[in-house]
Specification:
With 166 residues, the chain is mainly α. It contains 6 helices and 3 strands.
Length: 166
């Protein structure tokens, strides 16, 4: 029986996501052998003067060739963009909605996790949402069959306010 993964606060997701995206880079992948290599620096090639000989026009003039694979010598290289548009959107979204620091989020999770009705999932949600009123706390637990007592709600709000410095 496998354990369920532990939920992460948005502060943790923001740090992990930005670290991962900062390490990725665009690379070339060979279609034939699968070898990865960095994209080479582009050198400007001076334009050759156009020749006016009609005899050379029958021969096919090949366009510029792309880089070749360091492993097999093939010129069938594809650009493998590892940082996709969707990744950048997700990182922007997490940065906008994550308003607390990692230390504060962890302190909130630890502060509310020992309450009776608060498990890892709800502790993480509390650290993400940062409820400031009893109605906001009740909204987090609205789908449950139990209702939180006033003392539990007060402890959650106190833990949030204490760790945000309010």
């Amino acid at each position: 029986m496998s354990e369920e993964p532990q939920p992460l606060t948005l502060s943790e997701v923001k740090i992990l996501f930005s670290d991962e995206l900062s390490r990725r880079e665009n690379r070339l992948r060979c279609v034939e052998c699968g070898h990865f290599q960095p994209v080479p620096e582009v050198e400007e090639v001076p334009e050759a003067p156009a020749s006016e000989s009609t005899e050379d026009s029958e021969d096919e003039v090949e366009g510029p060739k792309g880089p070749t694979c360091d492993s097999c010598g093939s010129d069938k290289m594809m650009l493998n963009e590892q940082i996709k548009y969707e990744h950048n959107l997700a990182l922007d979204h997490v940065q906008k909605i994550s308003s607390s620091k990692l230390e504060n989020s962890k302190a909130i999770v630890e502060g509310v996790q020992d309450l009776e009705h608060v498990n890892n999932y709800y502790a993480t949600k509390i650290a993400d949402i940062l409820p400031q009123s009893p109605d906001e706390v009740r909204a987090l637990f609205a789908r449950e069959r139990f209702t939180l007592g006033n003392d539990e709600i007060a402890q959650i709000i106190t833990a949030v306010k204490d760790n945000l410095g309010e």
